[in-house]
Amino acid sequence: MAIDAGVYLHADVEADMRKRVMQRLATGPGATVAELRDILGTTRKYAIPFCEYLDKVGVTKREGDLRLLAGPT
After folding, report:
1. Tens of pLDDT, residue by residue, the chain (73 residues)
2. Rounded to 5 degrees, what angle do the CA atoms 58, 69, 9 make?
3. Whole-model pTM?
4. Who's near 60: CB < 8 A, 6+ residues apart?
5. What pLDDT sits at residue 63?
6. What is the DSSP letter of 32?
7. Contact 24, 32 (CB under 8 A)
8. Which run of H or of E encompasses 64?
9. What is the DSSP string of 15-35?
10. Could you tell me the CA-to-CA distances from 32 to 10, 11, 40 in Å, in that order?
11. Is the alpha carbon torsion for 57, 21, 42, 36 positive or negative?
12. DSSP structural state of residue 57
């Protein structure tokens, strides 16, 4: 599945990464890209497009430097 131009993830990997992000965001007020990068065990090069992808599909929303779980709209 395409996450960004030139960035692709296998569906199982995307589901696992999404689950980890959602678990982290469910336990606190939000997380920075750096925190999510560490949770995902990746680099900023891939963490930023993945966070932007989650924003785009409605899993998260960005508020300043934090990503929060997107609530029902």
Report:
1. 889 888 899 999 999 999 999 999 999 889 999 999 999 999 999 999 999 999 999 999 999 999 999 976 5
2. 55
3. 0.91
4. 21, 25, 51, 54, 67, 68, 69, 70
5. 95
6. -
7. no
8. none
9. HHHHHHHHHHHHTSS-B-HHH
10. 24, 24, 12
11. positive
12. T
How many CB atoms within 10 Å of residue 53? 20
Amino acid 66 reads L
* Cα-trace Rg, the chain: 11
| Residue 31 β-bridge partners | 67
Which of 27, 26, 28, 50 shows the shortest CA–CA distance to 37? 50
Report the alpha-carbon distance of residue 21 to residue 5 in Å, rounded.
Answer: 21
